[in-house]
């Protein structure tokens, strides 16, 4: 199934005529996760023809407005469309206090519950999982509490070789155990090793979102070997002093993090509106990490396994 990232917004604090504030949708094996929800997010979701009804898990990294000001409008639209699935929001705990009065105003008509899950800003934490996907939050280094998110497939079972099912007359009841690593004992007592009976499953795919943050080496251990890394690059090195002052990263910082984590691919975004072109960001990042792409609003990036 698909594992791909769609950029809805790649600007920083203020939108431009070409870039919306931060928002992304990750399609992870048919699960659609909204990551941040800047102003205009719902317009971008419609433009990219992503079904509103597919989204009921929303991850808000921190409480700067360019990362959540689109949330109440999106919730209102969910309601107007007649959606009934509960909405789960993973965010700083204060977000509930901020938008609860607006939710109360809609309460008479709201067809679903909005359920808040507070983030942990002290250590990595598993915040969501189902049979196929797990999501881990981890603290970033910003001017206010901020979390990154790691989305990772769960390890699939091994594939059993069909020809050996027939050859060794393996009962259906034992196939599941073999897929999970068990050997098989034939009727004559012969032990058939699992390594002969199966082929290994593919390596789980993973995607990490790191915005907003200064360069922060401790996160490398959490997202080590990630297939696709999105890391903010608000400035280039010429504005290093301003990056340090505002707890943001440069394109060079993002590239250093990609190299440190042994990422497969890097997407840089959260570009300051000071810049009219993104080429300086790419040129800077690619001096350290050649497999760097720039975030483009409306573009979808497949998450590919590291070579």
UniProtKB/TrEMBL annotation:
UniProt EC number: 3.1.26.11
Reaction(s) the record says it catalyses: Endonucleolytic cleavage of RNA, removing extra 3' nucleotides from tRNA precursor, generating 3' termini of tRNAs. A 3'-hydroxy group is left at the tRNA terminus and a 5'-phosphoryl group is left at the trailer molecule
Cofactor(s) annotated in UniProt: Zn(2+)
Residues binding Zn(2+) 1: 62, 64, 142, 212
Any Pfam family: Anti-Pycsar_Apyc1
List of catalytic residues: 66 (proton acceptor)
Cofactor note: Binds 2 Zn(2+) ions.
Keyword Ribonucleoprotein listed: no
One term of GO molecular function: 3'-tRNA processing endoribonuclease activity
Residues given in the record as Zn(2+) 2 binding sites: 66-67, 212, 270
Coiled-coil spans in chain: none
Domain of life: Bacteria
UniProt keyword terms in alphabetical order: Endonuclease, Hydrolase, Metal-binding, Nuclease, tRNA processing, Zinc
NCBIfam families: PRK00055.1-3, RNase_Z
Assembly, per entry: Homodimer.
Family that this chain belongs to: Belongs to the RNase Z family.
HAMAP family per record: RNase_Z_BN
Function: Zinc phosphodiesterase, which displays some tRNA 3'-processing endonuclease activity. Probably involved in tRNA maturation, by removing a 3'-trailer from precursor tRNA.
Protein name, per record: Ribonuclease Z
Species for this entry: Mariniphaga anaerophila
